[in-house]
Amino acid sequence: MGLRDVEKKLFDKSEESGKNSVDSFWEKNREKTAEENPFRPEELLPPEKNKGAIWIKEDEEKRKKKQKLKKISLIAVSVIAGFLILFWAVNLIRKGVFSEEKVKISVSSEEKVQSGDLATFTIDYQNLNGVSLREAVLHVNFPENFKPEGNINFESEGPNALRYVVGNVPGKTGGKISFRGKFFGPKDLLAYVNVLLEYKSFNFNSTFKTEVKKGIFITSSPLSLELGGPREAASGNTVNYIAKYKNNGEIAFKNLKLKIEYPPDFSFAASEPLPASGNNVWFIGELGPGESGEVKISGSVNGRNDEVKRFKAGIGEMKNGGDFFAYSDSESSLKIVGSPFEIEQTINGKKDIVVVNAGENLQFNIKFRNASSIGLKDVVLTEEIASPILDYTRLSISNSKAFVDFVKGTLTWKGAENQILKMLNPNQGGEVSFSVPVKEIIPVAGSNDKNFSISAVSKIDSPDVPTPEGANKTVASNTVNVRLNSKIAIAAEGYFNDPEIQNSGPLPLQTGAETTFAIHLKLLNVSNDLADARVVGSLPAGVSWKGVVIPKNANASFNSRTNEFVWDIGKLPAGIGVLTDPRELIFQIGIKPGQDLVGGYAPLLGRTVFSGQDSFTGRALEASIEGKNSNLSEDISVGGSGGMVAN
């Protein structure tokens, strides 16, 4: 039965009959609804028209929507299935024609090398696919302690990387390439080289990578380093360490540095030589085969009883970014032990580094105390100040009595001469003082007579100090380091008759007429190297710079606006003017005396200052002369009268 038949049955066979039936239905219900709900709004009542047509239209729209949804679902399922089939097909083709697993690389080399020996690495690459590889490139990355050598087929990609262009690799083929270099590092270091093959396949545009790593073991180093120091010390005591290094190999190392890492609670006091950076890095520079050296440091250490302090030294290079890489290293351990004594020493009022000049006096004060709970008898106090720069003949002991050993450079205080040392009760202490001057003339006889220093070590001990069996006896000690500045000097001489420069003009000097002279500046530097050495001087009014300078390559210049000249020297070695001739600059000046100088001497040179930085003490040094006039006693041809000004 169709929809039309149903409609006819429901609404009768004629439209009018149907209309009357529907209307009568709604009329009856309207009356009933009005009685049940008198507030029902009229707009909720159905309109006066054919209700069956509306239902037919709604059903038709629902049917069309269902059909549309079916079509969309079918299309979506088809697309997903297509993608899955395509993905499966691509992978099937890729596995059958090209596979990353069929591209292989390997690296072969020695398993073990000595530091500094030449190592060769061979890279073997294979393409086991049926299709060719294209744009293949090998990238080699190595650690900072590897130095490539003679790899002409490789391009640099930075400080720690090389690059080799392979190009195309046909299917079922491969190749080999080698690179060489030297490893530098401490013993038992395991270093790695990474090799990366980057490529594309001829049937894919994607970039693929295959990587391999090769390790090599460094068995020994040609650079040896030994850090030596005490095994035990009381908290607060001064400790001294020596780092000894040597090149046992056959090649020279350049730009070497030595670095020492200190434990917590270590206070650096001094070192020899001075650090190049901070208080723990020293510049060694080039170290040739068989060459050696050492660095001495001192400082105080604090800690708890039985605490172990570790000092570590390394010799190597400072890399970009300030990282230090050691070619060899060494370690020393120190155990903190208890001491019944406290001792403190000052020199010229200072507890750490003292810098003095030749001829200055050194005032020593040593304080000590029994920090234990028992009395300590027969206490012995000693001071070691052995040095060739001290004048022991002028040593003065003020408030105590001590035995002085001038040969060994030691002073010893005992209870026989000092009552307090016979029995030092708990918490009882005392003080001794003495002074000794530095020599006026520093004994420099050879090139090794330089960088003079004094390590003043105070020690105190008693036989009552308990010593565990098998352990070292613990004594309290304190060290103060004294460094001697180099002595520098400048002198000026003037000559009319000079073997180097031809001069002219009247003698005696005459007003309005120019006479030329040769000025000789001479420099002396006794015991330490100088850095940034220079001389700055001035010419008085009426004196002119003639531009004649000997030696010709001297870095000397003149400023006519200020009438100042500058002689830049740079580094000036120790012993100049003592072991060798003085460093000398000769230049010519001219003088036209005025009427105000008649009957006197004409000024030829103004105040002149010689300065530089002491490379050992780090202090700025300076020497000067106030000037020079035409009274040239050093030139007998001029004499006193020849330098006077006449009309």
Any overview of this molecule?
This protein is mainly β and 647 residues long. The protein has 4 domains: 100-218, Immunoglobulin-like, CATH 2.60.40; 236-337, Sandwich (Immunoglobulin-like); 341-484, Sandwich (Immunoglobulin-like); 488-646, Immunoglobulin-like (Sandwich), CATH 2.60.40.1170. It has 4 helices and 44 strands. The strands form 11 sheets. It has a 6-stranded mixed beta sheet with strand order 2-10-9-4-7-6, with no helix packed on it. The chain is extended and about 135 Å long. Mean pLDDT is 86; it is low at 10-26 and 28-45.
Which key terms come to mind for this protein?
single chain, 647 residues, mainly beta, Immunoglobulin-like, 4 domains, 6-stranded mixed β-sheet, 4 helices, 47% strand, extended
Low-confidence stretches: 10-26, 28-45
CATH class group of the largest domain: Mainly Beta
Number of helices: 4
Strand order in the sheet with the most strands: 2-10-9-4-7-6
Biggest β-sheet description: 6 strands, mixed
CATH architecture of the largest domain: Sandwich
Helical residue percent?
A: 10-25%
CATH superfamily of the largest domain: Mu homology domain, subdomain B
Provide the structure class. mainly beta
Count up the domains. Answer: 4
What is the average of the pLDDT values?
Answer: 86
Distance between the termini: 156 Å
Shape: extended
Number of strands: 44
CATH fold call of the largest domain: Immunoglobulin-like
Portion of residues in beta strands equals over 45%
Rg? 49 Å
